[in-house]
């Protein structure tokens, strides 16, 4: 608790993380995804309890601009606390605007931004330290660095636990489906046609996720473990369209290296950019008062208890997790399923019995429609939207039914939800959804 360590690892993490988030915002904007995902759709899928979070119309561009600016200020360490708070609020608001855009690395970015608000990452190699020397410190409590290592370790280890299931280990699913689609890659593509390659990737992926945090912590194995991190994530970036996540993890894993390596990197950056020292010469450790230290440690303890417990909430649900996806999000289950579906909604006039078939394209983006077809909570939300929409069109007491068929990890498609249930009358809650039809198969494991 009273052990100190150089502040350089926090500074390099802050700098790299801020620049990566800024690059992500610029990339998102440049590809036109702001308009495509947050302006064109007529309906957005809210998270439970956050129904009030909605896109802001044309002001959504301003929200992304604020997020990018805060990311840049975090990287520079300029107005650091306010910038970190702004980054957390703006990025998390963007993440919460539409459930169909959920990705694990968005969740990870929000968690890191939240941690950075309380971690003293802005007092070294920063504009704040240069402008206000009294805020400069070259040493910080060790737990401030260990908090980031622990979060990264949770991400990897829980991703490994999620892979300990029969589909992944015994059937090499879904990699046995995905890899042959990449057989046109130069030099190695032909290998992806062989089933044994999918099995090798599956088993190595599980071993890698379960062990890499521990190998990164060990001085002797750290260089080899980080080389594995780079190779693993570059390979996933080449094979799968998962955006910035591989690069975020490659950069984040640098936090496991000793402070001397981070200091050398900062010194190199100073010389390259001809930067000022950004600090006075005298040593200045950051010392928290007893009450502040206890409050921070208590808050971090609660934060990590939630992170370690939340992925196991699926145990509260009676049915197969991959089928129902009840408790699936926010649990570091990365690329475990090839799940495709089709869903056709019909609206019945409660007074006349007249049936209207719904064209989902009239209301949803391509991404929304794809996500809707396999996620029951989104089906309920869309049914509520259709009920209100058709009520405004003059339909009396609209009833909304859905025919949905889903295929999971190469299995034959089968009926997904009870087509006789009026989804307009069902509530979107955390309770199990009895109208999801049985899976009638077994995926054993964690």
Write structural notes for this entry.
34% of the residues are buried. The radius of gyration is 24 Å and the shape is globular. It contains 17 helices and 6 strands. The protein is of the alpha+beta class and 446 residues long. Helix 1 (8-30) crosses helix 13 (259-273), helix 7 (142-162) packs antiparallel against helix 10 and helix 7 (142-162) runs parallel beside helix 14. The strands form 2 sheets. It has a 4-stranded antiparallel beta sheet with strand order 4-3-5-6.
Compile the SSE list and pairings.
Elements: E1 4-6, H1 8-30, H2 33-38, H3 60-76, H4 80-96, H5 104-118, H6 127-131, E2 139-141, H7 142-162, H8 166-170, H9 175-178, H10 195-217, H11 222-239, H12 245-252, H13 259-273, H14 290-309, H15 321-324, E3 339-348, E4 355-357, H16 366-372, H17 376-392, E5 399-408, E6 414-415
Antiparallel strand pairs: 1-2, 3-4, 3-5, 5-6
Largest sheet: 4 strands, antiparallel
Secondary-structure element string: EHHHHHHEHHHHHHHHHEEHHEE
Runs with pLDDT <50, length 5+?
Answer: none
Q: What is the helix content?
A: 40-55%
Report the principal-axis shape. globular
Q: Helix segment count?
A: 17
Spatial order of the strands in the main sheet?
A: 4-3-5-6
- Strand fraction: 5-15%
Give the end-to-end Cα distance, rounded to a whole number of Å.
Answer: 34 Å
Kindly provide the radius of gyration, computed on alpha-carbon positions and rounded to a whole number of angstroms: 24 Å
Give the number of DSSP strands.
Answer: 6
Q: Tell me the structural class.
A: alpha+beta
Question: Mean of residue pLDDT?
Answer: 92
